[in-house]
């Protein structure tokens, strides 16, 4: 029972602190605008942004917003991880059943609070309470479990213990390549971004809120670039498409972050795409071989490498799914990419390379051992 109580307290702490993180820039913008509207409306806006960061779709009668600000999602997941670590120390949970109970309690409590926030919202923009509860529970569960694994309070065993770290490393490499490409694009488009900020003229409080909004969506933009590099491309509304084959231009909202959308895709992106996927496969293959039992043959090593690639593809596919959806009315009713295509491309390429590398490494080691024994 102490593990469940610790998990519930961790869920409350994660929700309260996460809401405060969102409320801070919203209240700054509210104060900068002269605090003309009731504070309750500003807090409702903060709660709505908090739910969006947790994956809920926000909608009115005529429009919806469902593209997740993944930067905020990452912050909330880190908060969940920190709270889970504290709950483990407080409750003394050290066995797998108790740790699982703690994570479930934390996720369920956060989901209940999210459903309550969605129900009590005083704005015409609302989230479905059931969806808010389910997606909040998922984010908190992943964050809490990831935190416990990172602190080695919870160990992955068997197949997952060998393949999981390799999949994570390969996916992280692909994300880093996409982040590098986005950074280059942002630097090259700095003039356009500054001009867009000047056109908005948000004031001091509004500038803080605008900066927070752009930072929250920065990892989402990384996933969009990743989708371009892996082949499926990204649609930024009904008229703008960006892919390795070219860019279809059209009108975009005057959001500073969208000022980095290129008019053409640099040729270096094609090379970065191929090299990034191959390098991710090589890393996955080498890592699974390191963790395989000494008696493993090339077939088992290749299967483990392929599994790491498929798992990496599935994770990046989920990220692509979160980075896709409606972003307002009209042309912005669908923004994002094809999550299944991202998962398939990454899974096939990284999995194939990882399987070949892992099998070759085991075969080479077997030959070396045979020469040493003879």
Break the fold down into its secondary structure elements and pairings.
Blueprint: H1 2-32, H2 39-53, E1 58-59, E2 64-65, H3 70-91, H4 96-120, E3 126-127, H5 129-150, H6 158-188, H7 190-200, H8 203-230, E4 234-236, E5 241-243, E6 246-248, H9 267-291, H10 298-322, E7 335-336, H11 339-373
Helix pairs in contact: 1-2, 1-3, 1-4, 1-8, 3-4, 3-5, 3-8, 4-5, 6-8, 6-9, 6-10, 8-10, 9-10, 9-11, 10-11
Describe what this molecule looks like in 3D:
With 374 residues, this protein is mostly helical. It folds into 2 domains: 1-155, no CATH class; 158-374, no CATH class. It is built from 11 helices and 7 strands. The protein has helices at 2-32, 39-53, 70-91, 96-120, 129-150, 158-188, 190-200, 203-230, 267-291, 298-322, 339-373, and strands at residues 58-59, 64-65, 126-127, 234-236, 241-243, 246-248, 335-336. A 4-stranded antiparallel beta sheet has the order 6-5-4-7. The protein has a 3-stranded antiparallel beta sheet with strand order 2-1-3. Helix 1 (2-32) crosses helix 8, helix 9 (267-291) packs across helix 10 and helix 10 (298-322) runs antiparallel to helix 11. The longest helix is centred in the last third of the chain and has 35 residues, at 339-373. The N and C termini lie far apart (60 Å). The mean pLDDT is 85.
Evaluate the radius of gyration: 23 Å
The spatial strand order of the largest sheet comes to 6-5-4-7
Secondary-structure element order, as H and E?
A: HHEEHHEHHHHEEEHHEH
Tell me the overall shape.
Answer: flat
- Number of helix segments? 11
What's the number of domains? 2
What number is the mean pLDDT?
Answer: 85
Q: Care to count the β-strands? A: 7
Oligomer status: single chain
Strand content: under 5%
Largest sheet: 4 strands, antiparallel
Summing up helix and strand content along with how strands pair, one would put the structural category as mainly alpha
N-to-C span:
60 Å
Task: Detail the poorly predicted runs.
Answer: none
Helix content: over 70%
């Amino acid at each position: 029972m102490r593990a469940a109580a610790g998990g519930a307290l961790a869920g409350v702490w994660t929700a309260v602190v996460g809401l405060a993180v969102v409320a801070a820039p919203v209240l700054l913008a509210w104060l900068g605008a002269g605090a003309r509207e009731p504070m309750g409306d500003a807090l409702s806006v903060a709660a709505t942004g908090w739910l969006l960061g947790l994956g809920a779709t926000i909608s009115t009668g005529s429009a919806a917003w469902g593209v997740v600000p993944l930067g905020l999602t990452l912050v909330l997941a880190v908060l969940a991880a920190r709270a889970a670590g504290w709950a483990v120390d407080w409750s003394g949970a050290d066995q797998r059943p108790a740790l699982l109970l703690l994570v479930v309690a934390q996720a369920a409590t956060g989901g209940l609070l999210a459903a309550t926030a969605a129900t009590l919202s005083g704005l015409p923009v609302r989230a479905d309470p059931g969806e808010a509860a389910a997606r909040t529970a998922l984010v908190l569960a992943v964050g809490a479990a990831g935190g416990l694994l990172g602190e080695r309070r919870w160990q992955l065993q068997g197949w997952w213990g060998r393949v999981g770290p390799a999949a994570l490393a390969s996916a992280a490499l692909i994300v880093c390549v996409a982040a590098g490409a986005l950074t280059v694009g942002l630097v090259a488009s700095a003039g356009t971004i500054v001009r867009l900020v000047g056109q908005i003229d948000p004031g001091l409080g509004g500038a803080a809120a605008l900066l927070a909004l752009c930072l929250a969506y920065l990892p989402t933009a990384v996933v969009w670039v990743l989708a371009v590099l892996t082949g499926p491309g990204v649609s930024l509304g009904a008229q703008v498409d960006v892919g390795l084959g070219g860019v279809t231009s059209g009108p975009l909202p005057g959001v500073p972050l969208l000022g980095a959308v290129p008019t053409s895709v640099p040729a270096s992106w094609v090379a970065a795409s191929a090299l990034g996927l191959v390098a991710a496969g090589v890393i996955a293959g080498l890592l699974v071989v390191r963790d395989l039992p000494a008696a493993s043959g090339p077939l088992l090593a290749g299967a483990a490498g392929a599994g790491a690639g498929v798992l990496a593809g599935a994770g990046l596919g989920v990220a692509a799914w979160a980075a896709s959806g409606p972003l307002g009315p009209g042309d912005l009713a669908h923004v994002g990419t094809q999550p299944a295509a991202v998962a398939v491309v990454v899974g096939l390429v990284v999995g194939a390379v990882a399987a070949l590398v892992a099998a070759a490494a085991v075969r080479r080691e077997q030959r070396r051992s045979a020469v040493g024994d003879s």
